[in-house]
Amino acid sequence: MSLRDRLARQPPGYNFTIGRILAIYAGLMVTLLLAALDQTIVATALPRIVSDLGGITQYSWVFTAYMLTSTVTVPLYGKLGDVYGRKNLFLFSIVVFLLGSALCGAATDMTQLVVFRAIQGIGAGGLFPLSLAVIGNIVPPRDRGRWQGLIGAVFAASSILGPAVGGFIVDNASWRWVFLVNLPIGGIALIVISITMPRRAPQTAHPIDWLGAGLLAAGVGSLLMGLVWGGADYPWTSGHVVSALALAAVFLVAFAFVERRAREPILPFDILRNPIVAGSVACMALVGMAMFGTISYVPLFVQGVIGTSATSSGVVLTPLMLGAVTTSLLTGQLVSRTGRYRWNAVLGPVVLATGMFLLWRMDVHTTNAQAARNMVIAGIGIGSMMQVFVLSVQNAVPRRHIGSATALTQFSRQMGATIGVTVMGAIVNHGLPSGLGGSQGIGIHRLPPAARQALADALRPAFFVAACVASCVWLIAVMWVKEQPLRRSLDEISVLEADAGAPG
């Protein structure tokens, strides 16, 4: 069969030809490259940014502001995509992301950087969930592992390029290029998506739960403010922290009340009656806590405690991402061949907890090689679970809910990541060496021995918390993430879907 015939072939169970799917995937891969590069580049460069702008106590806020806005917009992107189609939303999210990147590159202090990262996060909130929802609509669950190799190649490229490029930029040029490098990549993404992605007619009969979206944003924002303030800026029993947490409880309870009565809820809580979906969503949140908390603070450990350059810290961070991507590719192929995925969900947390335990054991005598080894182990654990929980949710819900269900998994991951980085930031700030809090111009990688020891003592409890979180993932996966046959066709309705509310 010629190449042209292969591209024109439409396999059974698919709604598009192979050629059209490859064209759509090209747009998705450029978009995911944009989002994945930003995560790894910023994590590597942030210690140097803090040295330039000052304010190490705001270190976690650079991540928290980004994750906060991206988290609260994820379910809105998912619902709007289900109702109005995803192409225009893709273009909008990329434009906002690029605007935020340009502003971050122009920031003159940490406060500005935090605000501009929040703008960047509004755009980033649509990149991952919209991409994964499109995949769920064009490839049947049973074959998704084979196609996952293309997405895995993007993450492999970003894993290799991101930390290395981030470290190289801050060691040899201005850190501002860490953000400005997004602009040409984003321009390519806009062009490719405009050409490749199909446009769907809007379904204007479906209302959008704007009230629920606002209550969710207010509740999550108040919760994170309380967690960030507690133990750092204010005591946990202070009026600021207690008021923020109380407001979070009020807003989130009101959100749950509104969602139960909304015709088109912003988050499809009904599907959580399925124990597979509920367990997978909980696991996604906990994996996000462990993964993003680690990515955020390992570069600080390498530069501040081991005392190496930003480029070296990027080299250490690369093994985690490469381990995750390589394992994800291999397990994706096995899932497609065997049709079984539960073993990934059970084995992955064990490996991840092992890697986190080794990170917890690191001290001032740890070498770059030892840190890299620990990151590889953690990355293998993450890679075993990277797509399994998304796949199990998409396979367990009707096709008409794939967009909202995928957004729910990404919302849980983002929420977990936001809380994870925030909690780790609170733990680190609590034990932070005196004199490092806000002094501008401090070289993080040139700390005196006493400060290095104190910084190591402040960071190690955060890695121990990540190990405990990974253990919780294993417990939930064993109890609730059960095996369900993977559908071979996009139009196939599993018998279990009709029993989604039945106990497992």
Task: Walk me through what this model shows.
This protein is mostly helical and 504 residues long. The protein folds into two domains: 13-208 and 264-498, MFS general substrate transporter like domains (Growth Hormone, Chain: A), CATH 1.20.1250.20; 209-263. It has 19 helices and no strands. It has helices spanning 3-8, 18-53, 59-84, 87-105, 110-124, 127-138, 144-172, 177-180, 182-196, 210-229, 239-261, 275-306, 310-338, 342-360, 368-385, 388-396, 402-430, 449-480, 495-498. α4 runs antiparallel to α9, α13 (310-338) packs parallel to α15 (368-385) and α17 runs antiparallel to α18. The longest helix has 36 residues, at 18-53. The chain starts with a helix and ends in a 6-residue tail after the last helix.
CATH topology title of the largest domain: Growth Hormone, Chain: A
Mean pLDDT: 79
Structural class: mainly alpha
What kind of sheet is the major sheet?
none
For this structure, what is the CATH homologous superfamily of the largest domain? MFS general substrate transporter like domains
Q: How much is the radius of gyration in Å?
A: 22 Å
- Quaternary organization: single chain
